[in-house]
Amino acid sequence: MTLNEWQKKVDDWIKKHGVRYFNEITNTLILMEEVGEFARHVSRKYGEQSYKSNENPDDIKKELMDIFFVITCLANQMGINLEDELMNHISHKAQRDHSRHHSNSKLRK
């Protein structure tokens, strides 16, 4: 599936199940909530905290997809084509960071 197809699938889902998009402020706050839920899993799976008995470590995947879904909602309602912007962004990063990370002594082990 392409990102364009994904954006269309999310848009169709919103229209069928969600009635309409939440406004941009609400979706941004939902995004922050989802990032926090993902961060909680990262702190338990990779950090020093442990999972509680009622928490499922596999839910980290769900939380990451919740983030992606809300980002897609925001892109759709703001008229941002994720596929085009991803290609522009990776090209920009390649030019900007061409030698930056290779010359960073902190990254050498």
- Radius of gyration over C-alpha positions, nearest whole angstrom: 18 Å
Number of strands: 0
What's the end-to-end separation, in Å? 38 Å
**Percent range for β-strand residues:** under 5%
Low-confidence stretches: none
Helix percentage range: 55-70%
Mean pLDDT: 95
Along the chain, the helix and strand elements come as: HHHH
Give the key terms.
109 residues; mainly alpha; 67% helix
Describe what is shown at a glance.
With 109 residues, the chain is mainly α.
What does this structure look like?
With 109 residues, the chain is mainly alpha-helical. Helix content is 67%, strand content 0%. It has helices at residues 3-18, 24-45, 59-78, 82-96. Helix 1 (3-18) packs across helix 3 (59-78) and helix 2 (24-45) packs antiparallel against helix 3.
Present the secondary structure layout.
Elements: H1 3-18, H2 24-45, H3 59-78, H4 82-96
